[in-house]
Amino acid sequence: MNTVRPLIVQEVCLRDGLQIEPVFVATADKIRLADAFSALGFARIEVSSFVSPKAVPALADAAEVFAGMQRAPGTVYVALVPNLKGAERALAAGAGELNLVMSAGQTHNLANMRMTTDESFEGFARIAALPRGNVLLNGSVATAFGCPFEGAQPVAKVLDLVRRYLDLGCTGITLADTTGMANPRQVAALVEQALPLVGADALTLHFHNTRGLGLANVVAAYDAGAQRFDAALGGLGGCPFAPGASGNICTEDLVAMCEEMGIPTGLDLPALIALSRGLPALVGHETAGQVAKAGRVADLHPAPPGLRAA
Amino acid sequence: MNTVRPLIVQEVCLRDGLQIEPVFVATADKIRLADAFSALGFARIEVSSFVSPKAVPALADAAEVFAGMQRAPGTVYVALVPNLKGAERALAAGAGELNLVMSAGQTHNLANMRMTTDESFEGFARIAALPRGNVLLNGSVATAFGCPFEGAQPVAKVLDLVRRYLDLGCTGITLADTTGMANPRQVAALVEQALPLVGADALTLHFHNTRGLGLANVVAAYDAGAQRFDAALGGLGGCPFAPGASGNICTEDLVAMCEEMGIPTGLDLPALIALSRGLPALVGHETAGQVAKAGRVADLHPAPPGLRAA
Q: Which GO MF terms does the UniProt record name (chains A, B) (predicted)?
């Protein structure tokens, strides 16, 4: 119980947080956020997505953000990439890691990527063959804990997709609960089966808080041996099938939980909260994050005035 | 891992959910909600609070709600009671259980109850001496996981308060995280220490989702052996120190989580969701509950039109 294994938080607000926002956050504001994340010392920052600007207009400035931001030594700057064309653009922009993505659910892959699973992997093979110097390859399995069209995804199928990514030379694997369908028991079971294939230093869990289970799933995954987690400042993001529901798990809520549980993250919680409190001005609405509203557990309140003595 | 121990959900929306609402929900609507909870088969329903109507105007109609609602056999109808006068009113109204409440944090007790801890227990001793037939007594320790004024509360102090309640003849004990300061590690540790004193059939955990950890705390408590949990439809409630933050853990989100984890609750999730979707009309704002917005995990979506074949 009293482990002090660190938990590594990877910031995905700029990509998964902003991609669903109806407003276009100005490129300069994205760059300012990226630089703030770098200054905070995140190990990995997912900067943007090299997809069709028609499909995701919010991230049409991916190359400009990569070009304009500062780079901290030791931080990996990630670009989400669905296909060969996106990979070429990401490499040209100087991404430090290509995050390949396809969905365990065939219907979701067809809907999101306009490709079958096999076609996605044909494209990934071409990407893996590109000269890329020391740029890393991560393979993401979206809808790994359930597909909003098909429902549950068999564990054997998910693990087979993991193996296909590893066979391509991916040095990192992400299991993503894209629409917030995972539960703690399922998470513990899948992490236990994935770790022998992937290793804790290479496995990322990506949870959404769509149904309120995001942090419960983190605890289950961490207790099963996982250590790397995606999260978005303010809990930005969302789900096209759940208007009003939460998006990604919230970076500062996750870091606050870790602090209370005695799990080191290396991140500065007050600085994260301050940064998160600036998000509503950028996106035009309140965010789902709770700690930015409630304050840290350690932020005690003065006793009400006029209390009688005990 | 594959336990099928049931998890007992106790509905507190009418009391802890409504008490902080600025609007007065009409007595007839409260009665309708109470009857709906009875029809759903909750084991315990906290109906109202017999406190000063000046302090909590939202619950000034406590006696009228008790008088107007139907009573299902086997359901315990609970009244929150801070002092002797409240207990007398609750007994006159026909409450099936008096839920005594005081705070582990002395400052919180002085602020909320205008009494010291010892004065609270002097009043409880008088309540315990009242003739009450087969009306049950539950003892609640508020701020058991942290006081917003004082911070952490020593486990020994919390357990001592539990013993004082038991010595008075309480047959149930509630450990309440009144302002959402608990974390899963702390919860597991306190439950493990409380269970030998109280027993799982008599111990209730009462969590707030103020900082997003409500359901993670439920999992930790359940896995440590607890089985009874308070929750409020829609996640109503809130915290005076955290404007905009969530309130009680949400009944339908908790039941949805249990269903996905294979833990029986005996409650009808679609009916709960339908009931919860009527709350915004009563309280005049969106509620914090997630599943009422996102739907159940099992509520799959049709594939988008025009998808090519795989």
A: acyltransferase activity, acyl groups converted into alkyl on transfer; hydroxymethylglutaryl-CoA lyase activity; oxidoreductase activity; zinc ion binding
Of A212, A260, A294, the CB nearest to B210: A294
CA distance B114 to chain A (A): 8
Token pair 């357990």: residue: B159
Main-chain dihedrals φ then ψ at residue A80, nearest 5 degrees: -75, 140
Is the CB of residue B289 less than 8 Å from the CB of residue B252?
yes
Is some CB atom of chain B closer than 8 A to the CB atom of A231?
A: no
**Interchain CB distance below 8 Å, B261 and A114:** no
B172: left (phi over 0), alpha (psi -120 to 50) or beta: beta
Assign a CATH topology to domain A8-294: TIM Barrel (3.20.20)
Within 13 A of B269's CA, how many CA atoms are on the CB side?
Answer: 18
Task: Pick the residue of A181, A259, A290 with the most B CBs within 10 A to test the interface with B by mutation.
Answer: A290
pLDDT per position as a tens digit, A60-117: 999 999 999 999 999 999 999 999 999 999 999 999 999 999 999 999 999 989 999 9
Identify the bridge partners of residue B209 per DSSP, sorted by sequence position: none
Calculate the average pLDDT of chain A: 95
Low-confidence ranges of chain B (pLDDT < 70): 1-3, 241-242
pLDDT in tens, A233-267: 999 997 776 677 789 999 999 999 999 999 999 99
> How far does the CA of residue B59 sit from the closest CA of chain A (Å)?
23
Residue A261 touches chain B, beta carbons under 8 Å: yes
Taking CB atoms and an 8 Å limit, are B307 and A111 in contact across chains? yes
Backbone angles phi, psi at B45, to 5 degrees: -125, 120
B212 contacts A214? CB cut-off 8 A: yes
Chain A residue with minimum CA distance to B213 = A215
Q: Which two tokens stand for residue B270?
A: 């679609």
Q: Does B1 contact A at CB distance below 8 Å?
A: yes
List of residues 6+ apart from B203 with CB closer than 8 A:
B172, B173, B174, B175, B191, B194, B195, B226, B227, B228
User: How far apart are the C-alpha atoms of B282 and B26, rounded to whole Å?
Assistant: 8
CB atoms within 10 A of CB B301: 17
Is A245 in contact with B273 (CB distance < 8 Å)?
A: no
- How high does pLDDT run on average in chain B? 95
Cβ neighbours of A215 in B, within 8 Å: 212-213, 215-216
The domain spans of chain A are 8-294
Closest CA to A177 of A140, A207, A139, A219: A207
- Give the C-alpha distances (Å, rounded to integers) separating A230 from A61, A113, A227: 22, 21, 10
Closest CA of chain A from B20, distance in Å: 16
Give the number of other Cβ atoms within 10 Å of residue B170's Cβ: 23
- CA-based nearest distance B83→chain A, Å: 17
Active-site residue, B239 included:
yes
**Closest among B117, B118, B120, B43 to B86, alpha carbons compared:** B120
Residues 6+ positions from A185 with CB-CB distance below 8 Å: A220, B1, B260, B261, B262
